[in-house]
Q: What sequence folds into this?
């Protein structure tokens, strides 16, 4: 799977951690400097996956790491303890470099004309509505990250599917909730905005909890659907 953590003798744990740090930085920086433009953010995510060689699973998102961890637990994956520990470490790295990426983005673009963006709920909608919207599309996004690699041998194609899902979600609900789907992005951008410019935390709790819950659901659903992968492959052979 795309989001899976694969170990080999040629790939060290430190290289995987660096991959997650760099990829998350690129993603959050792109969100900051483009004001969250989905036509810029999604290709940047895809480019970050390719640039880091998918050696860590190209997660760059705590919600995806949570989905991978839940899937590993429910499917009783080999070397489960190490996978859980690695997922937790990846989440810490992603949140840390999300802050760093947002901090650098602030100094690159922040002016009176174009201040650093932040995520918040539209005035026309309730926090509960935005929460559900973020949960739904994060579930779709993280679910694609876990399952896409199982249905194609190409990591590049699987990465493109995930990146496209980001754009689809942003175009669908961006005007309601901001279209975050990533705790590292929401936490990084909103906390840097608060730390430097002051003011409220802009519902940072929503952009931490909603995507995280979506990651849990994605792990559950992907485990359920991948359980029937062999049956699906047999049906394909029979009908095609």
A:
């Amino acid at each position: 799977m795309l989001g899976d953590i694969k170990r080999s003798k040629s790939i060290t744990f430190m290289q995987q951690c660096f991959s997650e740090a760099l990829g998350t930085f690129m993603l959050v920086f792109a969100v900051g400097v483009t004001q969250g433009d989905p036509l810029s953010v999604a290709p940047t995510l895809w480019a970050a996956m390719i640039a880091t060689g998918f050696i860590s699973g190209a997660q760059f998102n705590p919600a995806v790491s949570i989905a991978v961890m839940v899937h590993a637990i429910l499917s009783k994956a080999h070397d489960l303890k190490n996978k859980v520990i690695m997922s937790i470490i990846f989440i810490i790295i992603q949140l840390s470099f999300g802050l760093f990426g947002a901090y650098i983005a602030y100094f690159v673009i922040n002016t009176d004309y174009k201040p650093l963006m932040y995520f918040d709920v539209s005035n026309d909608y309730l926090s509960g509505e935005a929460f559900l919207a973020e949960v739904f599309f994060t579930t779709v996004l993280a679910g694609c990250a876990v399952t896409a690699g199982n249905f194609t041998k190409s990591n590049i194609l699987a990465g493109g599917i995930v990146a496209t899902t980001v754009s689809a979600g942003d175009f669908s609900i961006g005007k309601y909730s901001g279209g975050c789907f990533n705790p590292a992005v929401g936490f990084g951008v909103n906390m840097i905005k608060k730390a430097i410019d002051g003011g409220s935390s802009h519902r940072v709790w929503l952009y931490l909890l909603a995507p995280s819950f979506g990651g849990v659901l994605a792990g559950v659903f992907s485990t359920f659907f991948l359980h029937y992968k062999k049956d699906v492959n047999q049906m394909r052979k029979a009908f095609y």
User: Anything to note?
Assistant: The chain is about 70% helix and 0% strand. The chain has a mean pLDDT of 87. The domain at 13-231 is CATH 1.20.1080.10 (Glycerol uptake facilitator protein). The CA atoms of residues 43 and 163 lie 7 Å apart.
